[in-house]
Description:
Elements: E1 8-15, E2 23-30, E3 36-41, E4 54-55, E5 61-66, E6 78-83, E7 89-93, E8 101-107, E9 113-119, E10 125-133, E11 136-148, E12 155-156, E13 162-166, E14 173-179, E15 185-189, E16 196-205, E17 208-216
Antiparallel strand pairs: 1-2, 2-3, 4-5, 5-6, 6-7, 8-9, 9-10, 10-11, 12-13, 13-14, 14-15, 16-17
Amino acid sequence: AWAPDGKEIAFIRYVQKPNMMDESYLMTRSMPEGTERMRLAVNYRGQLPGPGLTYSRDGKWILTSVGSGFYDGSSPRRLVAVSRETAEVVDLFPAPEGMVGDWNPVLSPRGDRLAFCRCRSATACELLEVRMEGLKAVGEPRVVLAEGAPDLRAAYLRDGSLVYPKGPPHARVLWRLGEDWLGRETRTQLSPAGEDVTQPSTAVVGGEDRLVYLRNRMDS
């Protein structure tokens, strides 16, 4: 993830440890100097691509997920904000008991909504969205997508609409959740049927919205 000021990137680094207990860390790297800093051990041992991360709109915080990383529900993963300046860690909200936990956070352009993935097991996950005031959740999360995989991740466009993958394994397509001129919810399919697409990410380039995503192909 790029910091809003373009002076830093944040990423997850995986380090091999004995006895299959690999460790993972939230890292930052200053740009273009290349100075790296380890900010937090995120203890992610689940399925790739990992816990996900995003910067707050003011660039002062990095949002990610920490927890046991195991799928037994004994220590659910939770969303946290890590101070870019001091590495202070602030819990956003707890995951319900018995859940694997929450990950893949992404903030809306105005920072007033947070979308994230919540999993009940290694295969059963939901895409949720909750209202935010700074780093505090307002009200209960609402379900955007009831069925998904652990790599479920969404992205916001500048107008606040949400892009997310939906569909069965090996046939997921991108959908856009927005509103019409009367404020009614709309859902529009973006990518062609028959493709398997995941991991959408958005940016503004030259005043235009750009969408990047992964396309998976199976060859048996």
